[in-house]
Amino acid sequence: MRTMISYFLLLTISFAIVLCSSKSEENCDSRQVSSNTTAVCDFKEHEHRLVCFHGLEDKWKFRGENVRTLLLCDWPEQTFDPQDALRGFSSLKKLVIARGNLTKLTSAFPREIGLLEKLNITGTKLQQLPDNAFNDLSHLKTLDFRNNSIAEINVTTFNIPSLHHIHLSGNPLKCTEDTKWILDQEKGSLGRKISDKSSLRCTTPYEGRSLVPVIEIIKTLKEECRKTVCECELVYFVGHGGKHIQRQLTAFASVNCSHRELTEMPSFLPANTTTLRLSGNKIKDLRPLTTNPAYRGVIDLYIDDNLIESIVQLEGSSWVDRFRLLSLRGNKLTDLPTYALQNVLQHNGNAVSLYLGNNPWRCDCLFTPGFQDLLMKYTTLVKDINDVKCARINGEDNSGKIIRDLKRTEICVSPDEEYLLHPLDVLNIILALLIFFIIVKVLYDYWSFRKTGKLPWIVAKIP
Question: Where are the beta strands (DSSP E) in 323-425?
Fold first, then answer.
C-alpha cells in the first residue's frame, strides 16, 4: 500500500514538472534566454513542438511539416513575414511569437498553415497588422495579442467566422468613437469575441481608464451632441480601476455653442456637460441657469460678447453657489448686485475665475464705490481686472478709465460742483468767523478792564 502511494505521489510530481516545463516553454520562460543572439531551435518530436530563440534556423525552412506547435521566442527583427517564415509548416495548429523587437507583420498568414487554430503574439512591440492577415486561416479559433503596442483595431481584419476568442489586454488602445465596435454584442461581432474586456485600458488622454465604460460615455456624448447645434468634446475622467469601475467614473464634457446666432441659451445639453461656451451669440437672459436641470452640472460658463444687461436673475440661485468659472466679457452690463455677488464669492469654495471686462460699467457715486471694493477684494479672482473700465461717454472725465484705479473724489464729485461752495462749507465758515469774533471781543474786554477798571457793558447789565 505504501509503495502504491509513493508511486502515485512520484507520478503526480512528475506530471506537475512536465506541466510546468510545458507551460514555461509555451511562455518562453526568461530562464531559457541566452546572451547568444544566434537562432537556436529545439524540436520535441514526441510533442511535435518546435521552440526557437532569436529567430528561426534556416534548416527548418520548408521542413516543418511535422511541427504542430511553433514557439518563436525573442524575435530579433522588427518585421515578421509569415509568407516567408512559415513555408513548409503545413501541420501547424499553434503559433506563438513571444517577446522581441517585432513591430509589424509584413504579409498575411499563408493558406499553407490553414489548419492553424491558435495564434499568440504577446509581449512584443507589434503595432500593425495587414488588413487581410487572417483571411486564409479558416480554422483559427483563438487570437492572443496581449501586451503589444496596438493602438487601433480594424474590425474587418478580425472578421473570421471560425474565430471565437480574442485577447487584447495590455495594448495602448485609443478610446475614441472609432472604438465603439467594442460595445457590439451581436452574434459573430468582434465586440462579442473579446474575452478580456474588463482588462482593457485606454491610452492618453484617458490613460489607465477602463476602456468599455469610457467608450460607452463617448458614444452617448456623440449621440446626444447630434441633438444640438454645438460641438462636443470629452475632456477628462475622474475615477480609477476597480471592481465597480463603471460606477466610479465621472466624465467631464465640454460643449461649444459659440457663434451659432443663438438668441437664448440651449434648452438641452448632453449629459456630463461641465464646460459650456456660448460666446458670440445674441443671448440676453441667464435664467435657464436657475430653472433648467440641464445646467445643473455646468461649472464653467463662457458667455462673452452677447447682449446680457443684468445678472440679477442669478441672485439667490444654487448655480452661483457652485460655479467655477464665469466669463461675461463684452456684454451690456452697466452694474450688478455688488453685495449679493460678494456674499456669493465668500461662500463659493469652487470659484476660481471671473471675467467682467469690456462692459460699459456705470461710474457714479451710487454703484462704483461698492463695485470697486469688490474688485479690490477679489483681485486674484477677477482675471481681467484691467479691462473692467467705465463706459466710454463723450464729455465724461472717467470715460474709459480702469475702475480699480479711480479715486473716490473722481467718482463722487461731478465736474460742475468742483469749484462751488457746498452749503455746509458756508456754514462752517460763518461759525469759524463767529468764534474768532468772540475770542477777539473777550481779549478786548480784558484789556479794557485792566486799563480803565470798567466792566464790559454786558457784564454790568447782568444782575
Answer: 325-327, 353-355
Contact 86, 109 (CB under 8 A): yes
Taking residues 103-124, report their average pLDDT.
95
Question: In this predicted model, what pLDDT tens digit does every residue of 326-375 receive, in sequence order?
Answer: 999 999 999 999 988 999 999 899 999 999 999 999 999 999 999 999 99
- Helices (H) and strands (E) in the chain — how many of each? 11, 15
* Preceding peptide of 205 cis, ω within 30°: yes
pLDDT of residue 12: 46
Q: What local confidence, expressed as pLDDT, does residue 321 receive? A: 92
CA dihedral 448, 450, 451, 452 (to 10 degrees): 80
Nearest to 89 by CA among 66, 109, 55: 66
Q: What is the pTM of this model?
A: 0.73
- Dist CA 100 CA 125 (whole Å): 8
Residue 190 grid coordinates: 468582434
Three cell numbers, residue 170 = 495590455
Rounded to whole angstroms, the Cα distance separating 315 from 355 reads: 17
DSSP secondary structure string for all residues of 91-103: T--EEEEEEES--
Phi, psi angle pair for 144, to nearest 5°: -120, 105
**Residue 122 is placed in which grid cell?**
504577446
Alpha carbon of residue 352 to chain centroid? 17
Length of the chain: 463
Closest CA to 124 of 72, 67, 197: 72
pLDDT at position 242, please?
47
Of the given ranges (138-152, 291-305, 406-420), which has the lowest mean pLDDT?
Answer: 406-420
- Residue 173's DSSP bridge partners are 202
